[in-house]
């Protein structure tokens, strides 16, 4: 590639420009412009990505805390149900002669409903955690893909010569023309 300053200032090509002038050749200045834009994006994008990940982490932690609170509530309900079970058992001793089987059925129903409720709350917590994990993973995947794409574009732009760049642009213009003819 030519000297870096030749991309900005062209003294020998413009006889009427005097001693200073700007290079208006888009193909010669494009890699420099892209590298400046990519540098600015990387510099300012780090903070944004860090903030997004911190916010995502806080949301996940809040979800986990909420799930833990739901679990504690379920445990409290279980303890209340167990206290109620003990009460029912005490009543069963009093009414053993008058219908022990009826009390036993109530006890089993109470235990089953309590375990079902606890199981539903546990399933809800697990689904919520799984959903948040998947969403966080998808966001990180998108960020990684964007950064990889930016890196690939940077590498591609640094490897392109003027001739290769002109050839690529010409072939892309030809493809777009052919695509337009097909859609028309």
TrEMBL record:
Where is it mainly found? membrane
Indicate the transmembrane segments per the record.
Answer: 32-49
List the subcellular locations: Membrane
* GO MF annotation terms: proton transmembrane transporter activity
Extract the InterPro entries matched here.
ATP_synth_b/b'su_bac/chlpt
| Pfam families in the record | ATP-synt_B
Q: Which sequence ranges form a coiled-coil region, renumbered to this chain? A: 64-98
Q: Does the keyword Coiled coil apply?
A: yes
What's its membrane topology?
A: Single-pass membrane protein
Give the UniProt keywords, A-Z.
ATP synthesis, CF(0), Coiled coil, Hydrogen ion transport, Ion transport, Membrane, Plastid, Transmembrane, Transmembrane helix, Transport
Recorded hits in CDD domains, A to Z, give:
ATP-synt_Fo_b
Task: Tell me the GO BP annotations in alphabetical order.
Answer: proton motive force-driven ATP synthesis
Matching entries from PANTHER family are given as:
ATP SYNTHASE SUBUNIT B, CHLOROPLASTIC
Role, per record: F(1)F(0) ATP synthase produces ATP from ADP in the presence of a proton or sodium gradient. F-type ATPases consist of two structural domains, F(1) containing the extramembraneous catalytic core and F(0) containing the membrane proton channel, linked together by a central stalk and a peripheral stalk. During catalysis, ATP synthesis in the catalytic domain of F(1) is coupled via a rotary mechanism of the central stalk subunits to proton translocation.
Name the UniProt record assigns to this protein: ATP synthase CF0 subunit I
């Amino acid at each position: 590639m030519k000297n870096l300053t030749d991309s900005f200032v062209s003294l020998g090509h413009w006889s009427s420009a005097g001693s200073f002038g700007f290079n208006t050749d888009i193909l010669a200045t494009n890699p420099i412009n892209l590298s400046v834009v990519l540098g600015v994006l990387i510099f300012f994008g780090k903070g944004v990505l860090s903030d997004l990940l911190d916010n995502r982490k806080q949301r996940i932690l809040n979800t986990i805390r909420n799930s833990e609170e739901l679990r504690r509530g379920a445990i409290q309900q279980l303890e209340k149900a167990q206290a109620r079970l003990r009460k029912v058992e005490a009543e069963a001793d009093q009414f053993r002669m008058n219908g022990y089987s009826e009390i036993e059925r109530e006890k089993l129903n109470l235990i089953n409903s309590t375990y079902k409720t606890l199981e539903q709350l546990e399933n809800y917590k697990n689904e919520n955690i799984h959903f948040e994990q998947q969403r966080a993973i998808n966001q990180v995947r998108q960020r990684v893909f964007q950064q990889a794409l930016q890196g690939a574009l940077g590498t591609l732009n640094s490897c392109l010569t003027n001739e290769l760049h002109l050839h690529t642009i010409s072939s892309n213009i030809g493809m777009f023309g052919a695509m337009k003819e097909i859609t028309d």
